[in-house]
Amino acid sequence: MATLKQVAAHADVSVQTVSNALNAPHRLRADTLERVNRSIELLNYRPNRNARSLRTSAVELIGYCVPSWPNQTHLVMDQFLHALCAAAERTGRHILLFTAPAGVDGMPTYEDLHARRMVDGFVLSQTETHDPRHGWLKDQGIPFVSFGRVWKETTQPGPWVDVDGAGGSAMAVRHLYETGRRRIAFLGWPKSSGLAEDRVAGWRDACKVLGLPTAGLVVRCREDSIDDGARATAQLLDGGRDIDGIVALSDILALGALRELGRRGLTPGHAVGVTGFDDSPLAEVVSPGLTSLRQPMDQIAEELITILTGPAGEPAERLLQPELVIRGSSAPG
Amino acid sequence: MATLKQVAAHADVSVQTVSNALNAPHRLRADTLERVNRSIELLNYRPNRNARSLRTSAVELIGYCVPSWPNQTHLVMDQFLHALCAAAERTGRHILLFTAPAGVDGMPTYEDLHARRMVDGFVLSQTETHDPRHGWLKDQGIPFVSFGRVWKETTQPGPWVDVDGAGGSAMAVRHLYETGRRRIAFLGWPKSSGLAEDRVAGWRDACKVLGLPTAGLVVRCREDSIDDGARATAQLLDGGRDIDGIVALSDILALGALRELGRRGLTPGHAVGVTGFDDSPLAEVVSPGLTSLRQPMDQIAEELITILTGPAGEPAERLLQPELVIRGSSAPG
């Protein structure tokens, strides 16, 4: 059977490029990717997914740190945990939950759990801009995979799976465009959030491609609250730009938009189309229902577990597309 | 050192009564409880909290089944899991998460995890009316403790910890009364829910004690949605009963009440005081903030772990009081 090296020689690329073709295809130019894939096929190369990077131990457990509250709201955490457990169980493993201080202060807890062989590796989530955990774990040689990117770093230590926020925003813009909207605003968060910047970039790019205006159509809310979403919507409606669509960075901000529209006697989904992010339980309990971008939890969990229990060493980066769940808030205007 | 039996003989009660005095004092008449407590003190009896009912195994893990979605919304599940992990860790244990089918179909999964010594015992939650898990686990001799009661059964198999829903509703009624409200309605769920009946009973009792009307002031919503809460509120406001307070069985129904009041130009917290249940993240993101009954998560988790890791055999039943978190939705009218 062919090796990675033979594939690289055949395609006249580096081993790293072949690895990227397998694990982070979006990093490659289309023609390079095609050439590598042809070599993979011709040489019948198959990455050995059975080789286990995690040490075989008596207990097959994967550690997951429960995010602390009340600092953060996790409206879809139960969905994520259910999917993660189910995916781990399909490989004969279980999830061990633990608590740890945020940032580097929590690292000794991770190290201790791994040293005592309580867990084979970790799934990280609630990734933050400049998150220090990834580099630390990589330096210690402790297996992990991240749900979410470390923003604003040129290279991210270790493998990750994430949802394409920019792609999601663009999807929302195209949907609103298709239902007749031509002046689509964006409700976001402060610039310090990498996640927020990713999503606003997707909105901006999609508007430009469709020839829609963007100037003066972004409002950055200080907090992720219904109140701030409503205030930002009022600002947009009073701004004289005659907006007919709103892409909100979160379901909570979108709920604020729906409230402000309702308060002014404007039927959401008719006068102005509104979309949210995450398809949280909130999206279904309001009326009209909120159109929102659902994270593909089962696929996310499956990829995380596959990467963590697969062969080590190959950089794995998976950017998954969210799914637009259409409800009344974006009905044709 | 005195035994349970000696205490029983001294107080002239059964061993079961002494056990109740220790673990379920609310079951005893005040004079019996006092007599037993005096005997306990005189004989210097101390329940042996160090005797471990859970088998000592290599891995000190407690199993918790992640509730399935999307059938249920768990807006405070992250809070519960964080508290449960922290409490387990204070005893040197961790939480093992797993998935299982609902009801008796899931029981083989519990049995298997216990038989393979993956876990020492289980914490159950999302307890349902006539929940079959408790009796099954008890019959198998598998250690467990339940967060939540099995409603509509005369006796519940195994120990439990729960929050006093009736007491919480009564607390909300008294608070609204103290802020000047005299016609306080209740937004609930269908009668089939034991939890809902518990909470409506607390509302009714408190209203009666305070001499407030109850007739025609209960609306049972079919679903736990903002929409149903708003519709029920409209029905109450149009019913000619001039209501000035609403105790809602959930934060989601309460949000519906706030929306309907807002739609009619009535300022929530002024014209009509509104309270919710659970103090979910929703309560803080609306404006005015929603007054809500918070479940004492840390205390709940502490009791669950103490019971599960404590001596077996003694029935333990702990009914904890929720805490009323007051916000703008119930400001003085």
TrEMBL record, chains A, B:
One of its GO terms (molecular function) is DNA-binding transcription factor activity. This is DNA-binding LacI/PurR family transcriptional regulator. The keyword Transcription applies. Keywords: DNA-binding, Transcription, Transcription regulation. It comes from Kribbella shirazensis. Residues 2-56 form the HTH lacI-type domain. The keyword Transcription regulation applies. InterPro entries: HTH_LacI, LacI/GalR-like_sensor, Lambda_DNA-bd_dom_sf, Peripla_BP_I. It comes from the Bacteria.
